[in-house]
Amino acid sequence: MKLKILSSIVFFLVLESLYSQNVNIYSDFPTGNILIEKIKNDSIWVRPDLRDTEGDWFYWCFAVDNAKGKTLSFLLPNLNKLTAKGPAVSYDSGYTWEWLFPDTLSFRSESFQFSFESNKEVRFSMGMPYSQSRFQTFIEKYSSNPSLSLDTLTLTEENRPIEKVIIRPKNKAEYKVLITARHHACEMMANYVIEGMIDEILMNKKLGSNIEYCFIPFIDIDGVENGDQGKNRLPRDHNRDYSGEAVYNSTIKLKEWFPEWSQNMTTICIDIHCPWIRGDGNEHIYLPGSQFSEMAEEQSKFSRHLTQTNSGELKVSNNLIYPFGYGWNTHQNNSKGFSFSKWVSTFEHVKLGTSIEFPYGVNVKQTITQQNASNFGRDFIKAVNEYLYNE
Q1: 125, 150, 180 — which closes off a domain?
Q2: Which of 58, 102, 129, 335 has the CB geometry, 3.0–4.6 Å to 31, for a possible disulfide?
Q3: Which residues form the domain of 24?
Q4: 139 and 116, same structural domain?
Q5: From CA 376, how far away is CA 194, in angstroms rounded?
Q6: d(CA 190, CA 180)
Q7: In Å, what is the CA distance from 90 to each residue of 26, 99, 122?
Q8: Rounded to whole angstroms, how far apart are CA atoms 201 and 388?
Q9: How many other CB atoms are there within 10 angstroms of residue 147's CB atom?
Q10: Under the phi-then-psi rule, with left for phi > 0, alpha for psi from -120 to 50, and beta for the rest, what region is 272?
Q11: What angle do CA 340, 346, 350 make, to 5 degrees?
């Protein structure tokens, strides 16, 4: 069995019988991440490459090819490396994904098996990875739309452009809406939600005509393309880089650019995240409650509009807000620095500054897919409009 890797040291044992069949296991592609610890017969022990992550996390993504006729077992370190739907699988180089066990309510195993019907590549991941190339393919269909423009916020430490998408209104802008994602590189489901938001803005003529939108889909594009966890990154988490002196090019520039762009207009700022991989409290859509009482009240108003515009397959609960002061949502959560949502909430002209947690695989027993995640984005942007014009 041959192994191709991306900037990782892999320790492995290869039996001669498998090696002679030339099965390839690799992660040297954008979003790829895996370490292989051992191979015995048709069983492969794998785990995430945590690299510069503090503590444990769960993102992994790898590919297998030249395995026709084989049934391989992949064993992971613990239950917290697979969603309640098991792994996601892609047959087209990571553009479309499906869950290996879409009908199960709670897949509980530290391993999974897969039978390969051809020698073509099959990718596996804990979620449904979303790369920059996927976004380029998506946004290209709107390249001739005069309302939309693509620009670069700044260049990353690895010289990648951090894209920002501006959608200008027909009339003079009176409101500004900023949507960000991938402060944590592994939280890929946010980008499917953003696709739906952009589709809705550009296709729904009933939306407000004096709102300017800006989307920054990849705050940590280096981490996304390199297949990093991103969460609890050392020396600093991107979403704790908004107090004191910022250390990343993206956050340094965003802190400088935002006041210039928003121009003291009434502004909404929403940062999209994904929660822990599975389990109670992590398998439903919610807004972490703000520590600021006035902002918490605005979150409550917005949540009422979201429940009303929520016409898609993925349903939100009537209690959308996870109150500040409970569980992980305390002052301790910001002990290493301000998050983006906390930082923007300190600006007087920001009417609503919040994050939203969108799960990886399950929303209140509903299976999350690329399509219904995108459709939720449509519902969400309608709620933004209702909130701006009716509060």
Answers
A1: 125
A2: 129
A3: 2-125
A4: no
A5: 9
A6: 9
A7: 14, 9, 6
A8: 14
A9: 14
A10: beta
A11: 85
